[in-house]
Amino acid sequence: MDIHGKQIRLAVKDGRLVKIACDQRVDASVEVIDLGGRLVMPGFVDGHIHLDKSFVGDAWRPHVEAPTLRDRLAAEKALLAEARPMVERAHALIEQAAMFGTVAMRCHVDVDATAGLSHLHAVLEACSHWRDAIDIEIVAFPQAGVMSCPGTAAVLDAAMREGATVIGGIDPTVFDGDADGQLDVVFGIAGKRSAKIDIHLHEPGLQGIEQLQRIAKRTRALGMAGRVAVSHAYALGEVPLETVDRIAGVLADAGVAIMTNAPGDRPFPPILRLRAAGVHVFAGNDNIRDAWWPYGNGDMLQRANLIGYRSGFYTDDDLLVALDMATEAGAAVLGKSGYGLRPGNEATFLVIDAPNGAAAVAGAPGERDIVRRGQCGKGGAARPIAARPS
Ligand SMILES: [Zn+2]
């Protein structure tokens, strides 16, 4: 079945999709694999993950209370210092996500004057083992601020020379007290290195809206439509809907995308309202079992379920929006080529025990098969499955 519950037949040759059709006629010489009427859909795209922070692949580490953001950063540094090596933990989380059917990620990696490029090097090493299974885009993320952490601008620039392709930012006013100072650095590096931009924005209410306005203005001025994203943008969930509509028009015009993971106890952007205004909204897991919070397992279907749950999505159309955010919308932001169930693309797709995409989001079944380039298996290691007579 496709995501709308329509029965389809996929024709695969040499690892590529050659035809997607509804008819059931097939040449006698062709091997037929009956997927039992299960849902077939493209692999997941995790538009926001932190591979350097997670304790997946390590011991369970109870959450530590931290009254301020600076306390949280200090607690994280202490926990990471005693954790297993970063490259092993990053590898374990990529493997777990691959088992759930993720085929692409945007990974934010801490890059600042205190961590230098050590996190980047560890994550790049872990990613190198997964080149054939997952496309991983790296964001140089100044977790400790830019202007308030002297030396960080130079380290961010160095990260772009060493494998990062997206420049990050964080709460320009709250962290740095100098919104234009931070944005000058972020947009400056993006211009110089032809990089994309993805800024963490947790700033509240109208302060957050002003920041979105600044980011949109710079995006337009530099002709960067489609290459700039803002992650979280909690403010969009805190202001009156008239304000949302006004800034949504500005974001859509400028080509600034919004990422949300529908976080636990926070207001978050009104997804349908933003999409109706033409804003590109996509999804990611964000923190997974790390010093920031204990939740998550890397499954983007579970994330789509949480996004739908918290957004009050009940109709099939709305549930399919959550699925789109975890697949096609994220692929567009990452610029993943050859993505989706279309003739000519790689025959890489998921097979899930659900009658359609809406049911998959609502129930988030854990069991799934992953077909990579025409070969079926679980997770990253492709293995053939026996053909069943049709
Ligand atoms: Zn994040």
Distance between the termini: 15 Å
Number of helical segments with 4 or more residues: 13
Average pLDDT: 93
Report the sheet-strand fraction.
15-25%
Backbone structural class: alpha/beta
Total separate domains: 2
Q: How many E strands?
A: 15
Largest sheet: 8 strands, parallel
Q: Could you list the spans in which at least 5 consecutive residues all have pLDDT below 50?
A: 379-390
Gyration radius, to the nearest Å? Answer: 21 Å
What is the topology, as strand order, of the major beta sheet? Answer: 4-5-6-7-8-9-10-11
Could you say which small molecules are bound to this protein? zinc ion
Helical proportion, percent range: 25-40%
Could you describe the 3D structure shown?
With 390 residues, the chain is α/β, with parallel strands linked by helices. It folds into 2 domains: 81 residues, Urease, subunit C, domain 1; 291 residues, TIM Barrel (Alpha-Beta Barrel), CATH 3.20.20. It is built from 13 helices and 15 strands. Strands 4-5-6-7-8-9-10-11 form an 8-stranded parallel β-sheet, with helices on both faces. Strands 3-12-13-14-15 form a 5-stranded antiparallel β-sheet, with no helix packed on it. Strand 6, helix 4 and strand 7 form a beta-alpha-beta unit. Helix 2 crosses helix 3, helix 4 packs parallel to helix 6 and helix 7 runs parallel beside helix 8. The protein is globular and about 70 Å long. Zinc ion binds next to loops.
